[in-house]
Amino acid sequence: MAERDPQGTRGPQGPGWLQLLADQAGMPELEAHRRLLVADGADAARTDQEARSAVEVASLLQERRQRAVELAALNDIAGRLAAVADPADLLVEVVDQARRLLGVDLTYVALLVGDDLRIEVASGDRSSALVGTRLPRTAGLVGSVAAGGTPRWTSDYAADPELVHEESADRAARAESIRGLLGVPLAVRGRVLGVLLAAKREERRFGAHEISLLTGLAAHAAVAIDNARTAAELRDAKEGLESTLRLDADLTRAVLAGGDPASLVERVQALTDVPVRWVEHPAAGPVGAALAGAARSGEPGPVVVGAETVQPVAAAGQVFGALVAGPAGAGPAGAGSAGARPVGGAPADALLLLERAAPLIALTLVGARATARAAQLGRDIATVDLLSRGEPDAAADHRRWRGAGLDPRRPHVVVVVEGDPDAARRHVVGLGLGGHVASAVHRERFVLVAPASLELEERWGAQEAPVAGLAGPVVETAGLRAAWGEAARTARALTALGRRPGSGGGLSRGDDLGVFAVLLSRAGSRELHEQVERELGPVLAEEARRGVPLTETLEVFLDQGRRPTATAAALRVHVNTVYQRLATLDGLLGPAWRERALELQVLLRLGRAAQELDGPGAARSPGRPR
Predict the structure, then answer these.
(1) Which of 378, 383, 474, 591 is most buried, judging by how many CB atoms fall within 10 Å of its CB?
(2) Are 321 and 261 in contact (CB under 8 A)?
(3) Which residues have a Cβ under 8 Å from the Cβ of 607 and sit 6 or more positions away?
Protein backbone atom coordinates (compact mmCIF):
# COMPACT_ATOMS: atom_id res chain seq x y z
CA MET A 1 0.00 0.00 0.00
CA ALA A 2 1.33 3.45 -0.85
CA GLU A 3 2.48 5.76 1.92
CA ARG A 4 -0.10 8.44 2.92
CA ASP A 5 0.62 12.10 2.42
CA PRO A 6 0.63 13.48 5.96
CA GLN A 7 -0.51 16.97 4.76
CA GLY A 8 -3.27 15.49 2.65
CA THR A 9 -2.18 17.59 -0.30
CA ARG A 10 -1.80 15.03 -3.04
CA GLY A 11 -1.43 11.21 -3.26
CA PRO A 12 -1.83 8.45 -5.76
CA GLN A 13 -5.60 8.90 -5.47
CA GLY A 14 -5.41 12.55 -6.61
CA PRO A 15 -5.61 15.82 -4.64
CA GLY A 16 -5.59 15.52 -0.84
CA TRP A 17 -7.91 17.05 1.67
CA LEU A 18 -6.08 20.39 1.88
CA GLN A 19 -5.91 20.77 -1.85
CA LEU A 20 -9.61 20.03 -2.17
CA LEU A 21 -10.38 22.63 0.52
CA ALA A 22 -8.06 25.12 -1.17
CA ASP A 23 -9.89 24.49 -4.42
CA GLN A 24 -13.23 25.24 -2.63
CA ALA A 25 -14.48 21.69 -3.28
CA GLY A 26 -18.08 21.06 -2.44
CA MET A 27 -19.65 18.27 -0.43
CA PRO A 28 -19.88 15.85 -3.44
CA GLU A 29 -16.16 16.19 -4.15
CA LEU A 30 -15.24 15.60 -0.49
CA GLU A 31 -17.49 12.51 -0.28
CA ALA A 32 -16.02 11.10 -3.51
CA HIS A 33 -12.50 11.55 -2.12
CA ARG A 34 -13.51 9.70 1.10
CA ARG A 35 -14.84 6.72 -0.86
CA LEU A 36 -11.73 6.63 -3.01
CA LEU A 37 -9.48 6.51 0.05
CA VAL A 38 -11.50 3.72 1.65
CA ALA A 39 -11.50 1.76 -1.60
CA ASP A 40 -7.73 2.16 -1.79
CA GLY A 41 -7.41 0.45 1.56
CA ALA A 42 -7.17 3.41 3.93
CA ASP A 43 -8.39 2.96 7.47
CA ALA A 44 -12.15 3.55 7.27
CA ALA A 45 -12.54 5.07 10.75
CA ARG A 46 -9.68 7.47 10.29
CA THR A 47 -10.82 8.37 6.82
CA ASP A 48 -14.34 9.11 8.09
CA GLN A 49 -12.89 11.36 10.81
CA GLU A 50 -10.80 13.22 8.23
CA ALA A 51 -13.83 13.58 6.01
CA ARG A 52 -15.90 15.04 8.83
CA SER A 53 -13.14 17.52 9.66
CA ALA A 54 -12.83 18.48 6.01
CA VAL A 55 -16.59 19.08 5.82
CA GLU A 56 -16.45 21.32 8.91
CA VAL A 57 -13.54 23.27 7.51
CA ALA A 58 -15.29 23.57 4.14
CA SER A 59 -18.41 24.91 5.87
CA LEU A 60 -16.37 27.47 7.82
CA LEU A 61 -14.55 28.55 4.69
CA GLN A 62 -17.85 28.84 2.80
CA GLU A 63 -19.34 30.91 5.64
CA ARG A 64 -16.30 33.18 5.68
CA ARG A 65 -16.41 33.60 1.94
CA GLN A 66 -20.13 34.47 2.24
CA ARG A 67 -19.34 36.96 5.02
CA ALA A 68 -16.67 38.52 2.87
CA VAL A 69 -19.12 38.84 -0.01
CA GLU A 70 -21.72 40.35 2.30
CA LEU A 71 -19.24 42.77 3.85
CA ALA A 72 -18.14 43.83 0.41
CA ALA A 73 -21.78 44.26 -0.53
CA LEU A 74 -22.42 46.32 2.62
CA ASN A 75 -19.42 48.54 1.87
CA ASP A 76 -20.66 48.93 -1.67
CA ILE A 77 -24.15 49.74 -0.41
CA ALA A 78 -22.76 52.25 2.11
CA GLY A 79 -20.94 54.02 -0.69
CA ARG A 80 -24.02 54.05 -2.87
CA LEU A 81 -26.21 55.30 -0.02
CA ALA A 82 -23.77 58.12 0.74
CA ALA A 83 -24.03 59.25 -2.87
CA VAL A 84 -27.84 59.56 -2.83
CA ALA A 85 -28.84 63.11 -1.80
CA ASP A 86 -32.62 62.89 -1.96
CA PRO A 87 -34.17 61.16 1.10
CA ALA A 88 -36.97 59.61 -0.99
CA ASP A 89 -34.52 58.06 -3.50
CA LEU A 90 -32.38 56.90 -0.60
CA LEU A 91 -35.23 54.89 0.94
CA VAL A 92 -35.87 53.13 -2.38
CA GLU A 93 -32.19 52.14 -2.57
CA VAL A 94 -32.29 50.79 1.00
CA VAL A 95 -35.24 48.44 0.46
CA ASP A 96 -33.92 47.20 -2.87
CA GLN A 97 -30.51 46.34 -1.40
CA ALA A 98 -32.05 44.70 1.68
CA ARG A 99 -34.22 42.47 -0.47
CA ARG A 100 -31.22 41.44 -2.59
CA LEU A 101 -28.95 40.69 0.39
CA LEU A 102 -31.41 38.57 2.36
CA GLY A 103 -33.15 36.94 -0.58
CA VAL A 104 -36.60 37.63 0.84
CA ASP A 105 -39.91 38.30 -0.91
CA LEU A 106 -40.59 41.77 0.46
CA THR A 107 -38.73 44.58 2.21
CA TYR A 108 -40.10 47.92 3.37
CA VAL A 109 -39.29 50.93 5.58
CA ALA A 110 -41.57 52.52 8.17
CA LEU A 111 -40.50 55.93 9.52
CA LEU A 112 -41.67 57.70 12.66
CA VAL A 113 -43.98 60.60 11.83
CA GLY A 114 -45.18 62.30 15.00
CA ASP A 115 -46.78 59.64 17.19
CA ASP A 116 -47.29 57.19 14.30
CA LEU A 117 -45.26 54.99 11.99
CA ARG A 118 -45.75 55.50 8.27
CA ILE A 119 -44.68 52.93 5.65
CA GLU A 120 -42.77 55.07 3.16
CA VAL A 121 -41.38 52.67 0.52
CA ALA A 122 -41.40 48.95 -0.28
CA SER A 123 -39.62 46.54 -2.63
CA GLY A 124 -41.43 43.42 -3.82
CA ASP A 125 -44.89 44.63 -2.79
CA ARG A 126 -47.78 43.44 -4.92
CA SER A 127 -50.59 45.65 -3.68
CA SER A 128 -51.14 49.37 -3.13
CA ALA A 129 -52.30 48.79 0.45
CA LEU A 130 -48.81 48.79 1.98
CA VAL A 131 -47.09 52.06 1.09
CA GLY A 132 -48.68 55.02 2.86
CA THR A 133 -50.19 52.94 5.67
CA ARG A 134 -50.04 54.72 9.05
CA LEU A 135 -49.65 52.51 12.09
CA PRO A 136 -49.89 53.27 15.79
CA ARG A 137 -46.46 53.44 17.36
CA THR A 138 -47.14 50.28 19.40
CA ALA A 139 -48.81 48.20 16.66
CA GLY A 140 -47.43 44.89 15.41
CA LEU A 141 -43.82 43.82 15.09
CA VAL A 142 -42.82 47.19 13.63
CA GLY A 143 -44.12 49.00 16.73
CA SER A 144 -42.30 46.57 19.01
CA VAL A 145 -38.99 47.23 17.23
CA ALA A 146 -39.49 51.02 17.24
CA ALA A 147 -40.37 51.05 20.93
CA GLY A 148 -37.57 48.75 22.08
CA GLY A 149 -34.87 49.82 19.64
CA THR A 150 -33.81 46.17 19.15
CA PRO A 151 -34.34 43.62 16.32
CA ARG A 152 -37.25 41.19 16.46
CA TRP A 153 -38.59 38.48 14.18
CA THR A 154 -41.52 36.09 13.96
CA SER A 155 -41.82 32.95 11.87
CA ASP A 156 -45.56 33.52 11.28
CA TYR A 157 -46.85 37.04 11.85
CA ALA A 158 -50.59 36.32 11.91
CA ALA A 159 -50.22 33.43 14.36
CA ASP A 160 -47.83 35.15 16.81
CA PRO A 161 -49.79 35.88 20.01
CA GLU A 162 -46.98 37.96 21.55
CA LEU A 163 -47.43 40.79 19.04
CA VAL A 164 -49.91 43.65 19.45
CA HIS A 165 -52.23 43.03 16.53
CA GLU A 166 -53.82 46.21 15.21
CA GLU A 167 -56.32 46.23 12.36
CA SER A 168 -54.41 48.55 10.00
CA ALA A 169 -51.17 46.58 10.47
CA ASP A 170 -52.89 43.19 10.09
CA ARG A 171 -54.77 44.39 7.02
CA ALA A 172 -51.51 45.40 5.33
CA ALA A 173 -49.93 42.06 6.27
CA ARG A 174 -52.85 40.11 4.83
CA ALA A 175 -52.74 42.11 1.61
CA GLU A 176 -49.09 41.08 1.12
CA SER A 177 -49.51 37.52 2.51
CA ILE A 178 -46.74 38.20 5.03
CA ARG A 179 -45.76 35.32 7.32
CA GLY A 180 -42.09 35.31 8.29
CA LEU A 181 -41.08 38.83 9.29
CA LEU A 182 -37.85 40.39 10.57
CA GLY A 183 -37.55 44.00 11.71
CA VAL A 184 -34.48 46.00 12.77
CA PRO A 185 -34.34 49.60 14.00
CA LEU A 186 -33.06 52.50 11.92
CA ALA A 187 -31.24 54.36 14.70
CA VAL A 188 -28.67 57.15 14.88
CA ARG A 189 -26.96 58.13 18.15
CA GLY A 190 -29.59 56.30 20.16
CA ARG A 191 -32.47 57.98 18.31
CA VAL A 192 -34.83 55.68 16.42
CA LEU A 193 -35.83 57.06 13.01
CA GLY A 194 -37.90 54.08 11.91
CA VAL A 195 -37.77 50.34 11.15
CA LEU A 196 -36.37 48.29 8.24
CA LEU A 197 -38.35 45.09 7.66
CA ALA A 198 -37.80 41.93 5.58
CA ALA A 199 -40.64 39.48 4.96
CA LYS A 200 -41.30 36.07 3.44
CA ARG A 201 -44.66 34.88 2.17
CA GLU A 202 -44.11 31.56 3.84
CA GLU A 203 -43.21 30.50 7.35
CA ARG A 204 -39.58 31.43 7.97
CA ARG A 205 -37.21 31.45 10.91
CA PHE A 206 -34.49 34.08 10.78
CA GLY A 207 -31.02 33.25 12.04
CA ALA A 208 -28.51 35.39 13.89
CA HIS A 209 -26.51 35.88 10.73
CA GLU A 210 -29.50 37.30 8.82
CA ILE A 211 -30.40 39.52 11.76
CA SER A 212 -26.81 40.78 11.89
CA LEU A 213 -26.73 41.38 8.15
CA LEU A 214 -29.97 43.39 8.10
CA THR A 215 -28.87 45.28 11.22
CA GLY A 216 -25.63 46.26 9.50
CA LEU A 217 -27.51 47.47 6.47
CA ALA A 218 -29.94 49.39 8.71
CA ALA A 219 -27.04 51.09 10.50
CA HIS A 220 -25.61 52.35 7.20
CA ALA A 221 -29.09 53.32 6.01
CA ALA A 222 -29.94 55.22 9.20
CA VAL A 223 -26.78 57.32 8.98
CA ALA A 224 -27.45 58.02 5.30
CA ILE A 225 -31.09 58.93 6.00
CA ASP A 226 -30.09 61.26 8.83
CA ASN A 227 -27.40 62.88 6.69
CA ALA A 228 -29.81 63.29 3.79
CA ARG A 229 -32.40 64.87 6.06
CA THR A 230 -29.81 67.21 7.52
CA ALA A 231 -28.60 68.15 4.04
CA ALA A 232 -32.19 68.78 2.94
CA GLU A 233 -32.80 70.93 6.00
CA LEU A 234 -29.63 72.90 5.30
CA ARG A 235 -30.67 73.38 1.68
CA ASP A 236 -34.10 74.53 2.78
CA ALA A 237 -32.55 76.85 5.38
CA LYS A 238 -30.16 78.27 2.77
CA GLU A 239 -32.99 78.81 0.32
CA GLY A 240 -35.10 80.34 3.08
CA LEU A 241 -32.27 82.66 4.10
CA GLU A 242 -31.70 83.72 0.50
CA SER A 243 -35.42 84.30 0.08
CA THR A 244 -35.50 86.30 3.32
CA LEU A 245 -32.57 88.44 2.27
CA ARG A 246 -34.20 89.11 -1.09
CA LEU A 247 -37.45 90.00 0.63
CA ASP A 248 -35.69 92.27 3.13
CA ALA A 249 -33.86 94.05 0.35
CA ASP A 250 -37.04 94.45 -1.70
CA LEU A 251 -39.12 95.72 1.22
CA THR A 252 -36.32 97.99 2.43
CA ARG A 253 -36.19 99.61 -1.01
CA ALA A 254 -39.95 100.06 -0.86
CA VAL A 255 -39.72 101.66 2.59
CA LEU A 256 -36.93 104.01 1.51
CA ALA A 257 -38.99 104.94 -1.54
CA GLY A 258 -41.82 106.00 0.75
CA GLY A 259 -44.09 103.03 0.18
CA ASP A 260 -47.34 102.76 2.11
CA PRO A 261 -48.74 99.53 3.66
CA ALA A 262 -50.80 98.81 0.54
CA SER A 263 -47.74 98.85 -1.75
CA LEU A 264 -45.75 96.73 0.71
CA VAL A 265 -48.56 94.17 0.91
CA GLU A 266 -48.53 94.03 -2.90
CA ARG A 267 -44.82 93.20 -2.81
CA VAL A 268 -45.39 90.48 -0.22
CA GLN A 269 -48.24 89.05 -2.29
CA ALA A 270 -45.99 88.88 -5.35
CA LEU A 271 -43.68 86.48 -3.45
CA THR A 272 -46.29 83.92 -2.38
CA ASP A 273 -49.35 82.14 -3.71
CA VAL A 274 -51.08 82.58 -0.35
CA PRO A 275 -53.60 85.48 -0.39
CA VAL A 276 -52.40 88.32 1.86
CA ARG A 277 -54.40 91.37 2.93
CA TRP A 278 -53.95 94.32 5.29
CA VAL A 279 -56.36 94.92 8.20
CA GLU A 280 -56.28 98.21 10.11
CA HIS A 281 -56.53 98.19 13.92
CA PRO A 282 -59.11 98.35 15.42
CA ALA A 283 -61.22 96.00 13.33
CA ALA A 284 -64.37 93.93 13.74
CA GLY A 285 -64.79 90.16 13.75
CA PRO A 286 -62.34 87.40 14.75
CA VAL A 287 -59.36 89.21 13.20
CA GLY A 288 -60.20 92.33 15.17
CA ALA A 289 -60.45 90.25 18.36
CA ALA A 290 -57.00 88.76 17.66
CA LEU A 291 -55.56 92.24 17.17
CA ALA A 292 -57.16 93.45 20.40
CA GLY A 293 -55.63 90.47 22.21
CA ALA A 294 -52.19 91.29 20.77
CA ALA A 295 -52.57 94.91 21.90
CA ARG A 296 -53.44 93.80 25.43
CA SER A 297 -50.69 91.19 25.74
CA GLY A 298 -47.96 93.18 24.06
CA GLU A 299 -46.76 90.05 22.21
CA PRO A 300 -47.33 90.53 18.46
CA GLY A 301 -46.71 86.93 17.41
CA PRO A 302 -48.69 85.22 14.65
CA VAL A 303 -52.14 83.93 15.61
CA VAL A 304 -54.19 81.34 13.70
CA VAL A 305 -57.81 82.48 13.31
CA GLY A 306 -59.86 79.78 11.61
CA ALA A 307 -58.27 79.19 8.21
CA GLU A 308 -56.17 82.37 8.32
CA THR A 309 -52.96 83.47 10.01
CA VAL A 310 -52.93 86.93 11.59
CA GLN A 311 -49.49 88.57 11.92
CA PRO A 312 -49.87 91.76 14.01
CA VAL A 313 -47.87 94.80 12.90
CA ALA A 314 -46.71 96.70 15.97
CA ALA A 315 -43.98 99.02 17.19
CA ALA A 316 -43.19 100.34 20.67
CA GLY A 317 -46.21 98.54 22.12
CA GLN A 318 -48.65 100.08 19.64
CA VAL A 319 -50.56 97.78 17.28
CA PHE A 320 -51.23 99.37 13.89
CA GLY A 321 -52.94 96.47 12.15
CA ALA A 322 -52.13 93.03 10.78
CA LEU A 323 -51.08 91.10 7.72
CA VAL A 324 -53.71 88.38 7.27
CA ALA A 325 -52.78 85.34 5.18
CA GLY A 326 -55.20 82.65 4.08
CA PRO A 327 -54.24 79.04 3.31
CA ALA A 328 -52.51 78.20 0.03
CA GLY A 329 -54.90 77.67 -2.86
CA ALA A 330 -57.67 79.74 -1.27
CA GLY A 331 -57.66 82.14 -4.21
CA PRO A 332 -57.67 85.93 -3.95
CA ALA A 333 -58.09 87.41 -0.53
CA GLY A 334 -61.68 87.47 0.54
CA ALA A 335 -62.83 85.07 -2.16
CA GLY A 336 -64.52 81.74 -1.66
CA SER A 337 -66.10 80.19 1.36
CA ALA A 338 -64.15 80.36 4.59
CA GLY A 339 -65.67 77.10 5.70
CA ALA A 340 -64.24 75.31 2.67
CA ARG A 341 -60.65 76.22 3.42
CA PRO A 342 -58.37 73.96 5.49
CA VAL A 343 -57.83 74.93 9.10
CA GLY A 344 -54.31 75.51 10.41
CA GLY A 345 -53.12 78.82 9.01
CA ALA A 346 -50.57 79.68 6.33
CA PRO A 347 -47.61 77.47 5.33
CA ALA A 348 -44.12 78.05 6.72
CA ASP A 349 -42.77 80.04 3.77
CA ALA A 350 -45.72 82.44 3.92
CA LEU A 351 -45.26 82.83 7.68
CA LEU A 352 -41.63 83.80 7.08
CA LEU A 353 -42.74 86.48 4.64
CA LEU A 354 -45.23 87.87 7.14
CA GLU A 355 -42.71 87.90 9.97
CA ARG A 356 -40.13 89.74 7.86
CA ALA A 357 -42.61 92.19 6.37
CA ALA A 358 -44.35 93.13 9.65
CA PRO A 359 -41.44 95.15 11.21
CA LEU A 360 -40.81 97.03 7.97
CA ILE A 361 -44.48 97.92 7.59
CA ALA A 362 -44.49 99.03 11.23
CA LEU A 363 -41.45 101.20 10.51
CA THR A 364 -43.22 102.70 7.52
CA LEU A 365 -46.32 103.46 9.57
CA VAL A 366 -44.30 104.97 12.41
CA GLY A 367 -42.53 107.25 9.94
CA ALA A 368 -45.74 108.13 8.13
CA ARG A 369 -47.56 108.92 11.36
CA ALA A 370 -44.65 110.97 12.66
CA THR A 371 -44.69 112.95 9.41
CA ALA A 372 -48.45 113.35 9.65
CA ARG A 373 -48.18 114.51 13.27
CA ALA A 374 -45.54 117.05 12.32
CA ALA A 375 -47.68 118.31 9.46
CA GLN A 376 -50.74 118.42 11.72
CA LEU A 377 -48.79 120.31 14.37
CA GLY A 378 -47.76 122.87 11.76
CA ARG A 379 -51.35 123.28 10.61
CA ASP A 380 -52.53 123.48 14.24
CA ILE A 381 -50.09 126.30 14.89
CA ALA A 382 -51.20 128.11 11.74
CA THR A 383 -54.89 127.63 12.66
CA VAL A 384 -54.37 128.92 16.21
CA ASP A 385 -52.48 131.88 14.78
CA LEU A 386 -55.45 132.70 12.53
CA LEU A 387 -57.86 132.58 15.48
CA SER A 388 -55.61 134.57 17.82
CA ARG A 389 -54.46 137.65 15.92
CA GLY A 390 -54.96 139.75 12.84
CA GLU A 391 -52.43 140.44 10.08
CA PRO A 392 -52.49 143.86 8.41
CA ASP A 393 -50.56 142.64 5.36
CA ALA A 394 -53.14 140.97 3.09
CA ALA A 395 -50.53 138.86 1.27
CA ALA A 396 -49.07 137.61 4.55
CA ASP A 397 -52.58 136.95 5.85
CA HIS A 398 -53.37 134.83 2.80
CA ARG A 399 -50.15 132.88 3.37
CA ARG A 400 -51.33 132.16 6.91
CA TRP A 401 -54.60 130.78 5.57
CA ARG A 402 -52.77 128.56 3.11
CA GLY A 403 -50.36 127.45 5.85
CA ALA A 404 -53.39 126.16 7.73
CA GLY A 405 -54.57 124.33 4.61
CA LEU A 406 -57.38 126.76 3.86
CA ASP A 407 -58.36 128.75 0.77
CA PRO A 408 -58.76 132.43 1.76
CA ARG A 409 -61.07 133.04 -1.22
CA ARG A 410 -63.77 130.63 0.00
CA PRO A 411 -66.30 131.14 2.84
CA HIS A 412 -65.68 128.98 5.91
CA VAL A 413 -67.53 127.91 9.05
CA VAL A 414 -66.08 127.41 12.53
CA VAL A 415 -66.94 124.51 14.84
CA VAL A 416 -65.96 124.43 18.54
CA VAL A 417 -66.32 121.26 20.60
CA GLU A 418 -66.39 121.14 24.39
CA GLY A 419 -64.95 118.05 26.09
CA ASP A 420 -62.35 115.54 24.89
CA PRO A 421 -60.38 117.04 21.96
CA ASP A 422 -59.07 113.63 20.86
CA ALA A 423 -62.58 112.19 20.62
CA ALA A 424 -63.65 115.23 18.61
CA ARG A 425 -60.69 114.84 16.24
CA ARG A 426 -61.50 111.15 15.70
CA HIS A 427 -65.09 112.07 14.88
CA VAL A 428 -63.97 114.67 12.35
CA VAL A 429 -61.55 112.21 10.73
CA GLY A 430 -64.44 109.78 10.37
CA LEU A 431 -66.48 112.38 8.46
CA GLY A 432 -64.03 112.21 5.55
CA LEU A 433 -63.97 115.96 4.92
CA GLY A 434 -60.87 115.90 2.72
CA GLY A 435 -57.71 117.96 2.90
CA HIS A 436 -59.05 121.53 2.71
CA VAL A 437 -60.00 121.81 6.39
CA ALA A 438 -58.02 122.97 9.43
CA SER A 439 -58.28 121.81 13.00
CA ALA A 440 -56.50 122.61 16.24
CA VAL A 441 -56.84 122.54 20.00
CA HIS A 442 -57.25 126.17 21.06
CA ARG A 443 -57.84 127.14 24.69
CA GLU A 444 -58.44 123.47 25.57
CA ARG A 445 -61.23 123.16 22.98
CA PHE A 446 -61.17 121.40 19.64
CA VAL A 447 -61.69 123.83 16.75
CA LEU A 448 -62.52 122.95 13.16
CA VAL A 449 -62.45 125.42 10.27
CA ALA A 450 -64.01 123.99 7.11
CA PRO A 451 -65.37 125.28 3.80
CA ALA A 452 -69.04 126.15 4.04
CA SER A 453 -69.70 124.03 0.97
CA LEU A 454 -69.10 120.83 2.98
CA GLU A 455 -72.51 121.31 4.68
CA LEU A 456 -71.29 120.19 8.10
CA GLU A 457 -74.72 120.50 9.70
CA GLU A 458 -75.96 117.61 7.58
CA ARG A 459 -72.83 115.48 7.93
CA TRP A 460 -72.08 115.99 11.63
CA GLY A 461 -74.71 113.59 13.02
CA ALA A 462 -76.63 113.87 16.26
CA GLN A 463 -76.80 110.65 18.25
CA GLU A 464 -73.16 109.83 19.06
CA ALA A 465 -71.55 112.99 17.67
CA PRO A 466 -69.79 115.44 20.02
CA VAL A 467 -71.86 118.43 21.13
CA ALA A 468 -70.49 121.45 19.27
CA GLY A 469 -71.17 125.07 18.48
CA LEU A 470 -71.24 126.31 14.87
CA ALA A 471 -70.76 129.82 13.46
CA GLY A 472 -70.25 131.30 10.01
CA PRO A 473 -69.82 131.34 7.12
CA VAL A 474 -67.13 134.03 7.09
CA VAL A 475 -64.53 135.05 4.50
CA GLU A 476 -61.99 137.19 6.38
CA THR A 477 -59.65 136.67 9.31
CA ALA A 478 -61.57 139.09 11.54
CA GLY A 479 -64.80 137.27 10.75
CA LEU A 480 -63.06 133.98 11.50
CA ARG A 481 -62.08 135.18 14.99
CA ALA A 482 -65.60 136.45 15.63
CA ALA A 483 -67.07 133.14 14.46
CA TRP A 484 -64.69 131.32 16.82
CA GLY A 485 -65.99 133.34 19.77
CA GLU A 486 -69.64 132.78 18.84
CA ALA A 487 -69.15 129.02 18.32
CA ALA A 488 -67.27 128.73 21.61
CA ARG A 489 -70.08 130.48 23.53
CA THR A 490 -72.66 128.24 21.88
CA ALA A 491 -70.67 125.12 22.78
CA ARG A 492 -70.37 126.24 26.40
CA ALA A 493 -74.08 127.00 26.56
CA LEU A 494 -74.98 123.60 25.15
CA THR A 495 -72.77 121.90 27.73
CA ALA A 496 -74.17 124.02 30.54
CA LEU A 497 -77.70 123.06 29.49
CA GLY A 498 -76.82 119.38 29.88
CA ARG A 499 -76.24 118.42 26.26
CA ARG A 500 -73.95 115.37 25.95
CA PRO A 501 -72.91 113.04 23.10
CA GLY A 502 -75.79 110.66 22.48
CA SER A 503 -78.39 113.10 23.83
CA GLY A 504 -79.31 114.33 20.35
CA GLY A 505 -77.41 117.61 20.73
CA GLY A 506 -75.15 117.39 17.71
CA LEU A 507 -74.07 120.59 15.99
CA SER A 508 -75.95 123.79 16.89
CA ARG A 509 -75.79 127.50 16.11
CA GLY A 510 -76.39 130.23 18.68
CA ASP A 511 -79.80 130.88 17.14
CA ASP A 512 -80.79 127.28 17.80
CA LEU A 513 -80.74 127.97 21.56
CA GLY A 514 -83.92 130.07 21.28
CA VAL A 515 -84.89 131.81 24.49
CA PHE A 516 -81.89 130.30 26.25
CA ALA A 517 -79.62 132.34 24.02
CA VAL A 518 -81.22 135.53 25.32
CA LEU A 519 -81.30 134.41 28.92
CA LEU A 520 -77.67 133.28 28.81
CA SER A 521 -76.43 136.44 27.07
CA ARG A 522 -74.50 138.94 29.16
CA ALA A 523 -77.52 141.20 29.67
CA GLY A 524 -79.83 138.28 30.27
CA SER A 525 -77.38 136.76 32.73
CA ARG A 526 -77.45 139.92 34.92
CA GLU A 527 -81.24 139.92 34.98
CA LEU A 528 -81.21 136.22 35.76
CA HIS A 529 -78.94 136.73 38.79
CA GLU A 530 -81.23 139.49 40.04
CA GLN A 531 -84.26 137.20 39.68
CA VAL A 532 -82.47 134.44 41.58
CA GLU A 533 -81.73 136.86 44.42
CA ARG A 534 -85.40 137.94 44.58
CA GLU A 535 -86.81 134.42 44.57
CA LEU A 536 -84.18 132.49 46.51
CA GLY A 537 -82.36 135.21 48.50
CA PRO A 538 -83.46 133.89 51.94
CA VAL A 539 -82.44 130.34 50.97
CA LEU A 540 -79.00 131.47 49.76
CA ALA A 541 -78.46 133.51 52.95
CA GLU A 542 -79.45 130.59 55.22
CA GLU A 543 -77.23 128.21 53.18
CA ALA A 544 -74.26 130.56 53.58
CA ARG A 545 -74.89 130.91 57.32
CA ARG A 546 -75.37 127.21 58.17
CA GLY A 547 -73.35 125.53 55.41
CA VAL A 548 -76.29 123.25 54.54
CA PRO A 549 -76.80 122.61 50.74
CA LEU A 550 -80.38 123.85 50.63
CA THR A 551 -80.39 124.94 46.95
CA GLU A 552 -78.91 121.61 45.83
CA THR A 553 -81.55 119.78 47.87
CA LEU A 554 -84.28 121.94 46.32
CA GLU A 555 -83.07 121.31 42.74
CA VAL A 556 -82.68 117.53 43.22
CA PHE A 557 -86.08 117.34 44.95
CA LEU A 558 -87.72 119.02 41.95
CA ASP A 559 -85.72 116.89 39.44
CA GLN A 560 -86.86 113.71 41.26
CA GLY A 561 -90.53 114.60 40.91
CA ARG A 562 -90.79 115.87 44.51
CA ARG A 563 -90.20 112.39 45.97
CA PRO A 564 -88.26 112.54 49.27
CA THR A 565 -87.00 108.93 49.10
CA ALA A 566 -85.59 109.32 45.57
CA THR A 567 -84.09 112.66 46.58
CA ALA A 568 -82.35 111.07 49.55
CA ALA A 569 -80.90 108.34 47.30
CA ALA A 570 -79.64 110.91 44.77
CA LEU A 571 -78.05 113.04 47.50
CA ARG A 572 -76.81 109.96 49.39
CA VAL A 573 -78.29 111.11 52.68
CA HIS A 574 -80.94 109.69 55.01
CA VAL A 575 -84.53 110.48 54.09
CA ASN A 576 -85.06 112.18 57.47
CA THR A 577 -82.34 114.66 56.50
CA VAL A 578 -84.32 115.48 53.36
CA TYR A 579 -87.48 116.05 55.41
CA GLN A 580 -85.56 118.39 57.76
CA ARG A 581 -84.21 120.42 54.83
CA LEU A 582 -87.67 120.60 53.20
CA ALA A 583 -89.06 121.93 56.46
CA THR A 584 -86.38 124.64 56.46
CA LEU A 585 -87.31 125.53 52.86
CA ASP A 586 -90.99 125.76 53.86
CA GLY A 587 -90.01 128.28 56.49
CA LEU A 588 -87.87 130.35 54.13
CA LEU A 589 -90.04 130.27 50.97
CA GLY A 590 -93.48 129.95 52.51
CA PRO A 591 -95.79 126.91 52.37
CA ALA A 592 -96.98 127.71 48.80
CA TRP A 593 -93.55 127.33 47.11
CA ARG A 594 -94.44 123.82 45.86
CA GLU A 595 -97.14 125.39 43.67
CA ARG A 596 -94.34 127.24 41.82
CA ALA A 597 -92.22 124.09 41.45
CA LEU A 598 -91.76 124.33 37.64
CA GLU A 599 -90.83 128.02 37.81
CA LEU A 600 -88.26 127.39 40.53
CA GLN A 601 -86.82 124.36 38.66
CA VAL A 602 -86.25 126.40 35.48
CA LEU A 603 -84.78 129.26 37.49
CA LEU A 604 -82.31 126.94 39.27
CA ARG A 605 -81.18 125.26 36.03
CA LEU A 606 -80.74 128.57 34.19
CA GLY A 607 -78.82 129.99 37.14
CA ARG A 608 -76.40 127.05 37.10
CA ALA A 609 -75.94 127.32 33.32
CA ALA A 610 -75.25 131.05 33.59
CA GLN A 611 -72.64 130.41 36.29
CA GLU A 612 -70.82 127.92 34.07
CA LEU A 613 -70.87 130.32 31.13
CA ASP A 614 -69.53 133.16 33.31
CA GLY A 615 -66.53 131.00 34.27
CA PRO A 616 -64.93 130.07 37.57
CA GLY A 617 -64.47 133.66 38.72
CA ALA A 618 -68.18 134.50 38.63
CA ALA A 619 -70.35 134.89 41.68
CA ARG A 620 -71.89 131.67 42.92
CA SER A 621 -75.38 130.86 41.60
CA PRO A 622 -77.71 128.29 43.12
CA GLY A 623 -77.78 124.68 41.99
CA ARG A 624 -75.99 121.42 42.46
CA PRO A 625 -72.17 121.43 42.23
CA ARG A 626 -70.57 120.51 38.91
Answers:
(1) 383
(2) yes
(3) 528, 529, 532, 621, 622, 623
